[in-house]
Amino acid sequence: MTTTPSLHGEYKMPGGKLIVIDLELREGRLADVQLSGDFFLEPDAALRAIDDALDGLPADAGEATLASAVRARLPAGVMMYGISPEAVAVAVRRAIDQAPRA
Amino acid sequence: MSRTTWRDHDWQLIHDAPQAPALHMALDEVLTDEVGAGHRPPTLRIWEWGGPAVVIGRFQSLRNEVDGEAARRHGIEVVRRISGGGAMFIEPGNTITYSICAPLSLIDGLSFQQAYAFMDAWTLEALAGLGIKAWYQPLNDIASEAGKIAGAAQAHRRGAVLHHVTMAYDIDAGKMLQVLRIGREKLSDKGTQSAVKRVDPLRSQTGLARAAVIEQMIDTFRRLHGLADGNLRDAERVRAELLARDKFAGEAWTADVA
Q1: Is the dihedral of CA B86, B256, B89, B30 positive or negative?
Q2: Å from B243 to nearest chain A CA?
Q3: Is A51's Cβ below 8 Å from some Cβ in B?
Q4: Which of B149, B116, B151, B114 lies closest to B130 in space, CA to CA?
Q5: Is the ipTM of this complex over 0.90?
Q6: Which run of H or of E encompasses B124?
Q7: Are the beta carbons of B84 and A41 separated by less than 8 Å?
Q8: Cα dihedral sign for B231, B235, B238, B242?
Q9: Distance (Å, rounded) from C-alpha A51 to C-alpha B149?
């Protein structure tokens, strides 16, 4: 088993599914971002596109900044059900704003 | 593409002997692709399980969802499916699972929410025939007065839609909670963890054996949509066995979302 990222945030999107973010902070920036959850996303490669969009953003980026960074990297024709860029942004903020897990 | 109806298609039933969890994952992929390519008729496949399994959704985190040590202790195989949605806990005989592989035209123009309900309308009718009042609960659940009965998931692949559903027939909730982490948290939130022993909405509300419930479901599908008995073709089985070995039984796929 690899090491567990230190920051973890969850957000149940109203009318949607559970959005989970695991990440690290390195030098004030998001690193090793992993989005997961029981949402629906097509094509499935969009998952990594979202992780990549978030990697490297400043730790103090607000929800609007995070959401537009995600939206800008979504593949054309992406289908999202139970998840949205805004909901991902909420989960990211929750991960950063909560104390690290023991 | 214009919308087709159920009756525009010649539906075929596959209800095979019990198979390993990884092979079921592979069969979903192979059969959906075959339907999408026009090589096989639209198909209803009823699953029989060769062993206990946890099936996680395409986008779920393996370590967040599954207690790997508990799964190993109970001899439970952990596999990842190609559709999104949540984890399910399977023991042979404790769930009813089916897949519908259909041309995308069947749900053309429908919203996601409409498409889920549309694909399972026959199931609600089958349940009504068994005396269970059930309804679609967006986004992707079938619910009854005795609680959630089933969860559905869809995936679109090259001209076809895969719609699969797992229904709780009689689940050992205690064991499920040892293996699924999220289930444990969700239930403890509701203060029900110690009280729940079985999740058995189908068994308790019908009093019927699992096989009898399946028979009623097949009969209902046949009456509403038409359904011919069919079989897995040899070439499909071979492809699925290779895919099970090379992809679905492998760590790279299962831990793709770590």
Answers
A1: positive
A2: 18
A3: no
A4: B149
A5: yes
A6: helix B121-129
A7: yes
A8: negative
A9: 33
What single-letter amino acid sits at A73? Answer: R
Q: Which amino acid is at B72?
A: R
Flag whether residue B32 sits within 8 Å of chain A, measured between CB atoms.
no
- Residue A36 is nearest to which of B61, B112, B155, comparing CB atoms? B61
Does any CB of chain B come closer than 8 Å to the CB of residue A12? no
* SS3 of B65-120: HECHHHHHHCCCEEEECCCCCCCEEECCCCEEEEEEEEEHHHHCCCCHHHHHHHHC
* Cα–Cα distance list, A19 to B60, B78, B174 (Å): 9, 21, 26
State pLDDT tens for residues B132-189: 999 999 999 999 988 899 999 999 998 999 999 999 999 999 999 999 996 555 655 5
- Angle, alpha carbons B81-B203-B186 (nearest 5°): 55
Q: Is the omega angle on the peptide bond into residue A43 within 30 degrees of 0, that is, cis?
A: yes
Residue B168 vs residues B54, B70, B96, B121, B171: alpha-carbon distances, Å = 14, 21, 7, 18, 6
B181 phi-psi bin (left φ>0, alpha ψ -120 to 50, beta other): alpha
Contact indicator for B101, B62 with CB cutoff of 8 Å: no
A83, amino acid identity: I
Phi, psi of B163, deg, nearest 5: -125, 115
